[in-house]
Amino acid sequence: MEPIKSFELSKEYLESLREGIEIQDNQFITESLEGANVADIAAILDELNLDEAIYVLRLLSPSTAADILIELDEDSLIKVIREMEASELAALIDQMESDDAVDILILMPSKEREDVISYLQEKEKSANILDLLRYDEYSAGGLMAKEFIKANQNWNVVQTIEEIRRQAEKVEKIYSIYVVDNKQHLLGRVSLKKIILSSSDTKISDIYEPELISVPTHMDGEEVAEIMRKYDLESVPVVNAKNKLVGRITVDDILDLIREQSEEDMQAMTGISADIEESDSVFKISKARLPWLLIGVIGGLMGAQIIGFFEDGLSKYIALASFIPLVAATGGNVGIQSSSLVVQTLASKSVFNDTAWQRFIKGLMIAVVNGIVLGTFVFAVVVFIYGFESIFGLTIGLAMFCVVLLASFMGTVTPLVLDKFGINPAIASGPFITTANDLLGLAVYFGVAMTLLKL
Amino acid sequence: MEPIKSFELSKEYLESLREGIEIQDNQFITESLEGANVADIAAILDELNLDEAIYVLRLLSPSTAADILIELDEDSLIKVIREMEASELAALIDQMESDDAVDILILMPSKEREDVISYLQEKEKSANILDLLRYDEYSAGGLMAKEFIKANQNWNVVQTIEEIRRQAEKVEKIYSIYVVDNKQHLLGRVSLKKIILSSSDTKISDIYEPELISVPTHMDGEEVAEIMRKYDLESVPVVNAKNKLVGRITVDDILDLIREQSEEDMQAMTGISADIEESDSVFKISKARLPWLLIGVIGGLMGAQIIGFFEDGLSKYIALASFIPLVAATGGNVGIQSSSLVVQTLASKSVFNDTAWQRFIKGLMIAVVNGIVLGTFVFAVVVFIYGFESIFGLTIGLAMFCVVLLASFMGTVTPLVLDKFGINPAIASGPFITTANDLLGLAVYFGVAMTLLKL
């Protein structure tokens, strides 16, 4: 056995698979994919064109095809489900756990979604799906699956094992068995290990752990992720407002969520608008990148207007131009540092966090310290090394101090305000805010210069 | 039961706990913490001062104290272990799984580490720990635990359950049972679900799944995380060069690793040097933030030199100064976009990725498209809206084009080069590179201007 089973996942295999599809060598296709991990097959289908991918999916068993569908890139997935007949897609969705089914159905227009649901074989599954579709996609309710094992506290170990046997087909992975009372209220959990090590007639009520962390359906997915990380959970039960057990979230879904969200944050910070990868076409990538670049350019052009406004003063004191990049870069750096510290704190949500006011005061003090250090440093270099007169050094130093203060203020307040309005605070490090900071910095710089140098 | 058990975790409780410690009300302390989750207790101890935290730890049972120690912030943890006697610490480490023990021991100077290990009660544990200490902290070997359940393929279900019973104390969470041959070669896995649902005399060799993903000890932790995410694994076995099973990595450790690494990347991008939180003191935060700001400032001062060099030309054509921020900001934005796309691709490591050369050509084409669009746009605004002569518009437009090309090139090549040398490519979006890009951009801008405007 190889340390990592990535079977024949290679460009060469991809080529031979393409040929196999071309000449409809179905035997080669199915045999070469047999035993491969569904995530690997999905990675291959992502590389094929739509017709080829659908051709392969139709050759495989519904349960394998269903597992592959879940693992496809969102781009490929949307194309594939648009191409399939409602009945055909329903046959695959019949093989999925409810949360995966919902992840796919949510990508369809509601009319077609209803079509697919009407074709589902199991009444229970379509009820579960309709139930899950009510929740926000990124809330605990939207992340949870309705398939899990629960045991009544009055059962014994044998009855519980019977329930596991009954549900074994539907529930792929069992981490814990949730224990409920007669009214379905969540009481606690019992591990499979405990079940195995207890005698058959042991009552569940004697062995379950009542200390259990659960999350409400409305909790934000990011918060669920942080709870699962903090408490080392591999699955967490979801309860409704009446503390009735309605679903469970597993750690694999959380890993996907974390990855998605870190990509989104990165996107917010770099201003790349659409969900692109390096393998996309030149024009798709250019199109996704241009909007931010244009915002930055428009900001730069407005900056040119601001500087133009001070042109008279500038022509009298041409050296002022030399320090424009210094002021602009420092403002940008201070702003990004401040906002990312705030974003980090917002993400970790501790009860011991300072209040907004304390945070503001502290940010101000840090800005004052940094501003004094940097302002003094710049003053010293400008006067003693570059040999300018001291009033000019004072101008640049004071402008630095003001810009540091201003950028810290903007960098601290902007993410807090965004967060208050329910907007991802990471965009505070993105295009709009950065550009606005640059412009403010320029205005402050020239304002200080015009005043001190009496231009 | 509350939807989330965060017991009395509040500022008020923290105050009353402090009082309890002051007046040595041990009964209040132990009773109020009883049943609380260890992660919550750790969060409280992080808020206490060192003497208070140690006082509480010593009141609790060794197994609870050990669990809390693992969950402490690294800052607090280092202080606590420095304060404890070697024998006292050894008593706690005796209660931990080997990977957690190593995470703590690695923080100590090697002399003291040996002291602690010499006090350990279990010979097997100290052997395991010494073994794990050989691996790089962030490799699969450094992340794995030596505690896991393995079954010989020739055993039956009853023998396997016996083994689980024997190891139950040592192995906190059981996800899978790994199946080995007589020489300890990894053959596959069998789930607890399968064990429960099989009759007592079933042979393991008849029920285990041979399709199993394992990782080699030397694999980088980030890669392990990506494999566990991609294949939806809650634990992964680790094998040595001879495919012998030597450990297992669980998903909770991976969640911690992902968080640590995303914080590190953020740090690399924002240039905040030490591991700080918003709750740290004003001077600690200032000190951590100043180094990058200083790099930026020094870069800005060098920029002033560059511009000063062109001062004669600038005084003839004062409007050139107005467009300095435009050029600098665009260069910065293009550079960050390019490098973060490359970093994202490097992190996902697919076999279908383009080669470095293809990537380079593609990056160049994207840069040309973006450069033409932005250059033309700027030319049009400068000439038709701002009313400058067209040779000046051409100068600014062409300078934009060159800066976009240059920044794309630097943004693409830098992370690739860093990655080749085993350095975290995320720092390509950080202080040094950004500053270097700014300077290059300025030089290009004035170079183009001096040439076209014949200054």
TrEMBL record, chains A, B:
It holds the Pfam family CBS. One of its GO terms (cellular component) is plasma membrane. Residues 208-264 form the CBS domain. SUPFAM superfamilies: CBS-domain pair, MgtE membrane domain-like, MgtE N-terminal domain-like. One of its GO terms (molecular function) is magnesium ion transmembrane transporter activity. Gene3D superfamilies: CBS-domain (3.10.580.10), MgtE N-terminal domain-like (1.25.60.10), SLC41 divalent cation transporters, integral membrane domain (1.10.357.20). The chain crosses the membrane at residues 290-311, 317-343, 364-388, 394-418, 430-453. It is found in: Cell membrane; Membrane. It is a multi-pass membrane protein. InterPro entries: CBS_dom, CBS_dom_sf, Mg_transptr_MgtE_intracell_dom, MgtE_N_sf, MgtE_transporter, SLC41_membr_dom, SLC41_membr_dom_sf. Keywords: CBS domain, Cell membrane, Magnesium, Membrane, Metal-binding, Transmembrane, Transmembrane helix, Transport. Homodimer. Acts as a magnesium transporter. NCBIfam families: mgtE (TIGR00400). Belongs to the SLC41A transporter family. This is Magnesium transporter MgtE. It comes from Cecembia calidifontis.
